[in-house]
């Protein structure tokens, strides 16, 4: 409201409608709805040797946890 003083009424109304009334930073402030997040941590691939294993390739694969 204080920022709109000194402007013609039609310009002040237009600024209110468009949302230019006041700008403020959210730095250091709690923002509602901004606490939903998930960390995307890629897992390192574990490769399994199918051929050239002791005991041959036609047997069950070794267990990898």
TrEMBL record:
GO terms for biological process: mRNA processing; RNA splicing. It is found in: Nucleus. Keywords: mRNA processing, mRNA splicing, Nucleus. The keyword rRNA-binding does not apply. It holds the Pfam family SNRNP27. One of its GO terms (cellular component) is precatalytic spliceosome. Part of a tri-snRNP complex. May play a role in mRNA splicing. This is U4/U6.U5 small nuclear ribonucleoprotein 27 kDa protein. It comes from Magallana gigas.
